[in-house]
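Homework help board

Subject: predicted structure for assignment chain

Our instructor gave us this sequence and asked us to write out the predicted structure in token form, then describe one feature. I got the tokens but I'm not sure how to describe them. Can anyone check?
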Amino acid sequence: LSLTRPRAGALEFQLGSEDAARPWLLVASVKPGSNGTRLVDLEARKILLKDLLLALRVDGGQIETDAPISAMVRAEIAQDGTPQIATGRVLMGPGSFVDAGDPEARITIDRAEMEMDWNAAQRALTMPFQIVSGGTRMTLMAQAEAPREANGSWAINLGGGSVVLAPTNPGEEALVLNRILVRSRFDPVARRLNIDQAEVAGKGVGVAMSGNLDFSTADPRMNIGMAARKLSLVAFKQMWPPFITPAVRTWVIERVSGGIIEQGEVATN
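My token output:
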């Protein structure tokens, strides 16, 4: 651990481990800028995500992960504490995420990469990202708009790019989704994410969804409703996230091989 003050108004911080099996490093600095602003630089190298969540008091023990994370962030902060400029890049993986209450609910990723850019005039954070997990690949653009009023909700939209979902059984083809549109709102006070509109489409696939994710209790709950017409069961299995009722998902994958959903609705809790 190192904390130094190289000159007036500046501060440098370094924390790391030289453990041969899993070394990591966190370096941060604050320097005076023009017109009373502060320049903040942050670099993280191979920090375990579970340790970071624990330090930030974000994770309540529901998720276990061994994924490392590296990041570089640079920001210019005004005198009132608002960010004027903020850019960065985050790399994560390889690693896995496991629901502590249901060990079968596991997600494994090979690599996740995200860039971010804050526009102070529009109060918008743009985040293009890519996630690779085996034969599954997601390349999308997320945008978050900060509320104008205190304690307001953030508008979070997702779109652009494409999603390639790996087949669930040998001999099946990957599912390509080239139309992704999600409009949602996050209430930081109620700790609730409301999905107002979600549309996913590709060749022979068209699905509409809505729902919410509630973080207000020690046991987060997700409620999702999905409606589709003429959806093949092969595509339905590929679109079924592995962390939602994994035992039922495995049973369906192993025992259902074909068919068409002419019209249907699905709700999960």
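Reply (TA_rk): Your tokens look well-formed. For the description, you could write something like this. Helices lie at 49-55, 233-239, 246-255. That's the kind of observation they're looking for.
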